[in-house]
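Hi support team,

I'm filing this because I wasn't sure whether my run with (2S,3S)-3-hydroxy-2-methylbutanoyl-COA finished correctly. The job status page said complete, but I'd like someone to confirm that the output block is well-formed before I use it downstream. Pasting the exact inputs I used:
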Amino acid sequence: MSGNVHPAGAAPLIATADRPGGIRVITLDNPPANAISYALSAQLVTALEAANADPAIRAIVFTGAGGRFSFGADINDFATEPTPETKTARDVIAAVERSAKTFVAAIEGNALGGGFELALACDYRIGSQKTKLGLPEIKLGLLPGAGGTQRLPRLIGAQDALQLMLKGDTIAAEEARNKGILDEVVAGDVVAAAVALIERVGAAAPKRRLSARTTELGVKGMGLFAVPFVVAQAHKMVPPESNGGFAAHKLIDAVEASLELDFAHGLAREFRLFDELVRSAPSAALQHVFFAERQLGKIPDLPAAEPQEITTAGVIGAGTMGTGIAITFANAGIPVILIEPADEQIERSKQMVFGMFAHQVQRGRLTQEEAWKLGQSISWETDYGELAGVDIVVEAVFENMDVKKQVFSRLDAICKPQAILASNTSTLDIDEMAAVTRRPDRFVGLHFFAPANIMKLLEIVRGAHTSPQTLTTAVKLGKTLRKVAVVSANAFGFIGNRMFFDYAREAMYLLEEGIPPERIDRVMKQQFGFAMGPFATFDLSGVDVFWHIQQERVEALGEKRTNIIDRMYAAKRWGQKTGLGFYKYDGPSKREPVPDPDLIALVAEEAAAAGLKPRSVSDNEIIERLAYALVNVGADLLDKEIALRPGDEDIVYIYGYGFPPHHGGPMWYADEVGVATVAGKIKAFGWPVSPLLERIAQSGGTIAGYKKEFAHA
Ligand code: T1G
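And here is everything the job wrote out:
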């Protein structure tokens, strides 16, 4: 029998085909991810019931269409509460588990989440060189909820299984074979190999169901008596439930169940824990982040345009940023010419590059030869003429408009007409720069975040004349450079820094009200979940940078109450780079922030001079003032169409500023709290409420529901 078993009218999401010897091949065919949606699960259950009832069928092979097995359960489905009739991946796997047939998973490409769990329910698993396996549910604030927490520990031991699921990483074919997860890794057709295996082992071969096994702890020299100790250690290693560890602790509980309970009871425990997570706020936030990230490249109203090929690049300025950008191009396989007039700066840049590649070799991430090739793809020159043939040039010189204009008028004269010119400015007006060239349509902002070769975030700044082709090319380049690229309109500070200004303003105000920096940082980091508190961040990026931006901000926005930053700037309290900032930096690495009474004294003096009295402020108020400052500006940036979607702003803050992903980003967080509550608090803090926020609050709507036509209505 071949063809499809699906209710009349429903799109076929699987295909079945019979091979000689009673072998039925079932192909998951639900592009783009072969996601095991409720609809696909229903079709799979029907197909399995048909196969189970057919005595001529002795074995079943699962595979996926389009060079991928399955990326797991359909994340879109989590938004809809399943009914008792709804079929899910669990029902599919239960149908496999109770079947007497032999099952083989023929895995091409990725088998993730529920896709991997389906493979784990099979008797045999065959992969190809391109196979990748993983249970990344933790990245969605979930745990594997279709048997993965019970079957994987039985296959590779609790310790290894737990580590794999806690990280949510994938493992490649060879490692999976070495661990006994894959029975075979073949060069050719995985389905053919699966059929050959069935013919070899024969239908009468004993089933190899993992449910029939028990779980080993998998820790050398430790037997099951050590379970409580190992489990307690595991709980200590993950963040607290209230601060991003919600899913991790439940995952450890589920794996503990695989060690202490029989399969059926362990499975029930897993299902219960999963169901608690799938309705939780942290998971909803992380699901939002998943889809927000995939929306980034979709630019509404952008006429279709063919992206230009970017095969060579140039970077102006071999400072820390310029060199980091050059490394990013090299890592993406694009040879790059770094233009730098100063010899000692070229030396420093070469040390940074070769030091970084040597470190990658030490860490086993690169072979010596790969590092050598990468090093060769970066060249240092002093003459702009070397850039005549490159496809794109990124300017990364000192943050001064006049200097940048000189650079671009020289580039415009030298570079080939179709070359794209880009500025790495973090705040300045790119239209003003583009205006000194004859190619404003081929001008765009590419704002990298320090360190440029590490930070995933890239802000693509669309100028008034940036052409659809240039913008499309920049978005594609963002993917090529393995960045998370967010498009911003051209405005002071774009998205990230513009929102950061108000966040920084509130942090400074709290400091002036007598709240020490270490308390503010502790609350934002340990209670709310930021990767780093505001003052540690100021010290890392440099108080001198902050002083320059403050000069421009005060000019553009006003709002300075004290001379704290001016005095710190004058006193060379520039943060980690001078060993003194909002903290003192002691210890061997000179990176340990230590509270500094002199800083507190300086602040108290300035506050008194400004007539400010110390106030007692709760931890909650600290969180509210800093988080809502981001929300209020974020709403304005949507209203002015500088940001395309609230999800874009969330991604900027999660990837660029360490906002806790389990709160979904500032705009999602405002919905978590309730827009009316946030707007009310902002009013209470005495700030002008963003008109968009006011409108959403009055309409009882959500920011997530924001649509462009709602802007400046
Ligand atoms: N559900 C729905 N859509 C999905 C999907 C999924 N699981 N995975 C991908 N897509 C869509 C994605 O939105 C995009 O759509 C397109 O596929 C291509 O994806 C019971 C409960 C595998 C690393 O967490 O991490 O199983 O934007 O752009 O960059 O225990 O996709 O084109 O319209 O990301 O090559 C667990 C999620 C689910 C894996 C490939 N699975 N996917 O990245 O392509 S929970 C995951 C990924 C689960 C069970 C539990 C990535 C990828 P569009 P893409 P990519």
